[in-house]
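1st attempt posting a full record on here, be nice pls
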Amino acid sequence: MRVWLVTKKILYNIIFLALFVSTTRAERFKNCISGQIIDAETGAPVYYVNIFLANTTIGTTSNTEGRYQISNVPPGNYTLVISHISYETVTQKVMLNSSSKSILNFAISPTVIEMSPLYIDEERDRTWRKYFKIFEKEFLGYSDNAQACQFINPEVLHLVQGENPETLYGKTIQPLELVHANFGYRIKLIVRSFRITEDKITYTVLPVFEEMPSASEAQAALWEKNREQAFYGSFRHFFNTLFRQQFRQAGFSVERVQEEKRFRASTEQYDSQSAEGRIFLHTDYGLIKRLFFPDYLRIRYKENWAQTSFLRLPFDTMEVDLSGNALSDFQIIRSGYWGEKRFADELPLDYRP
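the predicted structure (as tokens):
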């Protein structure tokens, strides 16, 4: 655990995420999402609306008739996001099979953005900068990847202190833009909520990733190397291999323990085949699994004690997708190595090494 943690912090990543089957980038799919977006008050088409699948690189904008189309979408369960600076953000769950064509029309309502005063007194400005530094560290993290991130328009982030000095709340009034120099992504984030309390951090974000053009082949190769390093041994890598019953081959060891202790003896050990029926069950919809396990799972990657993570369920059972993201608002509770990870270490869900 890092020295900056004065008290144990458990990270709940409450993010609207998309669900993907295992695919390669070269594959083509027949799935398509299309529709029209109009103003809820006037009925007029709304153009230049951003339409994207949350936490992916997949998206488009509406044309002058308010129409949009997203093609070649892998099968899965998604959150479609409708975003425009002058309108309320709308989200819609979308489930696509092997050859789905979904027509989704939206009537969106105008919103009034409260503008900051032209002149801000020095004390208020100094307080906001203090809060922003806290947000930046706790949201991005303390890794080398966090150091490689730069916010382009931090002024769109609204931050206030809570009922005591240990709490901080935040949200964006416009998409927050971020450049990730280690991964080669430009990211737009709708931060619906951000909260720090004494013992936990929670946030709800709707991100869309855009690959930046590389200046050279060497830079492109470095970006891919950094992405691979972030993916292997990650929370998502583990669940991808768990549900394919290949986690041992991928380098993970899984044990059941009663406490969050790295070196305490386990009460049960699992291999790739025995995990089914003892950790998870298949459901009628193959992309969704049902998790159930008591106490904690202690997970280690390639026998590296520094990469020891713990998982705990908030309920007796819960349904998750192939990336380990719960279908409800309550997520799997992570601590240890994965609990220290933050947004700067995350990759879009359509990334495949």
